[in-house]
Design goal:
0% helix, globular, nine-stranded parallel beta sheet
Length: 243
Amino acid sequence: MSAAALRRSDRAPNLWVGQGVEIGERVTIGVNVVLHPGVVLEDGVTVQDHVVLGKAAVLGRYSSSPQAAPGEVVPLVVERGATVCTGAVVFAGARIGAGTVVEDQGHVREGATVGPGTVIGRGSALGVEAAVGARVRIQASVWLTGWTVVEDDVFVGPGTTTMNDDTMGRVARDAPLVGPTLRRACRVGGGVLLTPGVEVGEEAFVGAGAVVTRDVPPGARVLGVPARGAGSVPDDQRLERWR
């Protein structure tokens, strides 16, 4: 997006705003913020310093990401009461749920969706069309690759990495990329690696540092490299006991 598409606004210090931007009531905007065309900030949103919202993707020649038509404006919506913290970048076409927090230096790509009440930790990134549910806790420095699915009430430990291509760039151009699926209320420890297409079942537990190469059954505990079964999640650790 060229600088010509933006205009300076006096609503906040050094705020730059594109065409079609909608700003609701009780919105707080920090210093040096850029709102590209089509951004929608619903009531009660907070945008901290040095945030870029609605950025258009710049794609490589062989990128698998869907590309917008020339001149097309795909809205970014930040729902009511959400907070986007210092230095975060959220792309056009994403959606941030009500009351969600995108922490400092967070990165959310086009088409990604985040449900209400979720926290995206410091320096964590969501790939293209990643889908994250409600009340999810994503810790610092997590990479959720494109087309990853994270259901409600999931915990993802710091430094976790997901993958969607086990050929490392040698996949056929028309072949879909498939990220992991994390089912409701599962827990993934710090530094875990999740390989393309694996599913972590509902209420399952993946120990820190594990490498998950095959599906984890619901309620199972897995540990190690590669991850292997280590019993079941105790009843007193089930989500319903912590409500």
